[in-house]
From TrEMBL:
Gene3D superfamilies: NAD(P)-binding Rossmann-like Domain (3.40.50.720). The keyword Ribosomal protein does not apply. InterPro entries: Epimerase_deHydtase, NAD(P)-bd_dom_sf. This is NAD-dependent epimerase. The keyword Nucleotide-binding does not apply.
Length: 340
């Protein structure tokens, strides 16, 4: 296991699951989160309460954009590993509140990079997103594809994170690993995500909204698989060009210790199939409201995970039927939904 390890966004969906997994394995975790109101803070507090039951867990309420606070955090703990998952997430919200994305995803990310730079962090892993593939029509999406055409502000900030990480990796030899997550779902899920909204609507007797008339395919990836991939990657910091040793980077020849992986299931599912599984799980029919395509949305996502498989010997594998069943069971318990 690692020395001091930071998880940013530890009260969030993926950060909570990762922190919990590491703590159970005996790895102490320092977590930060600003507990913002993008979605119900009670859910974030409930996740935190579970993490706080572990003796190895230290929590600090801190905003990524707080430059002095972030500097002090890194100076105090001098992290060996940083897993950066805090961000302003969501594609559609980026149309309404663009500044939140600049503050958290750009300014905040720079503070993480600066912290890593000044404390000689040995591995920075950070959340990117399948949204960087934009309107790509060549499927499956490969990390070797050109991703210079993001179609939402959220995606643009995630692509920018990959570029900024590359520059810091190149300039300061910080090993960085970007994680392009593909529609992660599971227990302790995010209420702003489509599956959760469908669950709310189905249990509340309200119509579900299906954009592009429901004609979409998503590479749904179960959160436990995502955590397993991350845990394996933590111990595999990219090495870059081992011959490069100067204090002044040579832009022509140095190969930065920088990697990006797709973290996806590689089995895109029809949205309508997923709705049918939810209907089955809750034992209720959904009233379906068919709507046009939303700006910034894409028709299909599908991950080529061959790099991941080759390098860590693992690929996400939870079947959608099993993953949805776990989500429904958690949702029922958390919301105290009576069985029908
Ligand atoms: P989440 O919103 O549940 O978690 C993010 C956490 O970060 C939240 O608890 C939030 O309070 C915190 N946060 C946000 N801005 C912050 C700031 N300025 N300072 C400190 N804390 C802040 O989202 P998630 O689903 O757990 O996503 C984790 C990461 O993975 C994000 O970077 C997201 O963009 C990325 N991602 C997620 C998915 C997915 O399907 N869930 C897909 C692609 C990428």
């Amino acid at each position: 296991m690692a020395g001091n390890l930071l998880v940013t966004g530890c009260a969030g969906f993926i950060g909570f699951h990762l922190a919990e997994h590491l703590l159970r394995a005996g790895q102490p975790v320092i977590g930060i989160d600003n507990l913002n109101q993008y979605y119900d803070p009670a859910l974030k507090h409930a996740r935190l309460d579970l993490l706080k039951q572990h003796r190895g867990f230290t929590f600090l309420e801190l905003d990524l954009a707080d430059r002095a606070g972030m500097k002090a955090l890194f100076e105090r703990y001098r992290f060996e590993v940083v897993v950066h998952l805090a961000a302003q997430a969501g594609v559609r919200y980026s149309l309404q509140n663009p500044h939140a994305y600049m503050d958290s995803n750009l300014e905040g990310f720079l503070n993480v990079l600066e912290g890593c730079r000044h404390t000689a962090c040995r591995h920075l892993l950070f959340a990117s997103s399948s949204s960087v593939y934009g309107g790509n029509t060549k499927l499956p999406f490969s990390v070797h594809d050109n991703v210079d055409h993001p179609v939402s502000l959220y995606a643009a900030t995630k692509k920018a994170n990959e570029l900024l990480a590359h520059s810091y990796s190149h300039l300061y030899r910080i090993p960085t690993t970007g994680l392009r997550f593909f529609t992660v779902y599971g227990t302790w899920y995010r209420p702003d995500m489509a599956l959760y909204k469908f669950a709310d609507a189905i249990t509340g007797g309200k119509p579900i909204q299906l954009f592009n008339n429901g004609n979409m395919r998503r590479d749904f990836t179960y959160v436990d698989d995502v955590v397993e991939a991350m845990v394996r990657l933590i111990g595999r910091a990219p090495e870059g060009d081992v011959n490069w040793s100067g204090a002044h980077p040579d832009p022509g020849s140095s190969k930065a210790p920088w990697r990006v992986y797709n973290i996806g299931n590689s089995r895109p599912e029809e949205l309508m199939h997923v709705v049918a599984l939810l209907e089955q799980g809750f034992g209720r029919q959904a009233e379906k409201q068919l709507l046009p395509m939303q700006p910034g949305d894409v028709l299909e996502t599908s991950a080529d995970v061959s790099d991941l498989e080759r390098e860590i010997g693992f690929r996400p594998q939870t079947r959608i039927e099993d993953g949805i069943a776990k989500f429904v069971a958690w949702y029922r318990a958390y919301h105290n939904v009576d069985r029908t």
